[in-house]
Amino acid sequence: RLSRRGRTIIFSIHQPRYSIFKLFDSLTLLALGKVLYHGPAKQALEYFSSIGYECEPFNNPADFFLDIINGDSTAVAASKEDHRPVDAGKVAEDNADSSVVDVLHQKYLNSSLYQSTKEALGKVELGQGSKQRVSKQGHEITYANGFLTQLYWVSKRSLKNLIRNPQASVAQIAVTIILALVVGAIFFGVKLDRSGIQNRVGSLFFVTTNQCFSSVSAIELFIRDKKLFV
């Protein structure tokens, strides 16, 4: 539902069931820091079939990919049997187990999927390079959205937080009203003379200091929301 509203959804997920896997548009498989596949999720089985790894009937594709990466799949075992040298011993078998990721990574680098991805990334890098040169010359910091857009969404989010946590808002309003009554009572009926001017300066200093200290409580929002942001 979120993706249909225009959101970009990124999953870092371990062994999803098929009903979840079939919802993916793009799939990236990583092992030991190396990309083994990146492309449309629907073409993943076809790609692995083209390099000699057939998915068994009724097998979950996500489990199948993990089995291949870990060297546990029957497809991997069959591939080893087909490519094992006649005069090789146990050392060759151990090397085959450790090099599954390297073989899959090399096959991906030789695939058309990698070439198309590399071309697309090259175009993006060229575009970013020209934008960066312009921004450095102009000494300007550019954002994806303008200041008014950022202000609108941040204000909307803050307003929602206030509405969803009315206790804090009510307490803040009550404290402000009580302080206003106290300050008003102390400085009520100040005369228009030299001492009156000093009293007014004192009241302004007190009110300003109180506002400064009360706004320090907003730091808590930055500490709490920073974790969500990161």
Fill in the keyword field for this structure.
two-stranded antiparallel sheet, single chain, mainly alpha, 2 domains
What does this structure look like?
The structure is a single chain. The chain has 230 residues and is mostly helical. It has two domains: 3-78 and 94-126, no CATH class; 147-227, no CATH class. Helices cover 65% and strands 6% of the residues. The protein contains eleven helices and two strands; from the N terminus they run H-E-E-H-H-H-H-H-H-H-H-H-H. It has helices spanning 18-21, 44-50, 61-70, 74-83, 90-98, 100-109, 112-138, 147-164, 166-186, 194-215, 219-229, and strands at residues 26-31, 34-40. It has a two-stranded antiparallel sheet. A hairpin with a 2-residue loop joins strand 1 (26-31) and strand 2 (34-40). The radius of gyration is 32 Å and the shape is elongated. The two termini are 24 Å apart.
Number of domains: 2
Summarize the helix and strand pattern as letters: HEEHHHHHHHHHH
Largest sheet, strands/sense/barrel: 2 strands, antiparallel
- Strands in their spatial order, largest beta sheet: 1-2
- Report the β-strand fraction as a percent range: 5-15%
The quaternary state of the protein chains shown equals single chain
Distance between the termini: 24 Å
Number of helical elements: 11
- Mean pLDDT over the full residue set: 80
Structural class: mainly alpha
Please tally the β strands and state the result: 2
Helicity range: 55-70%
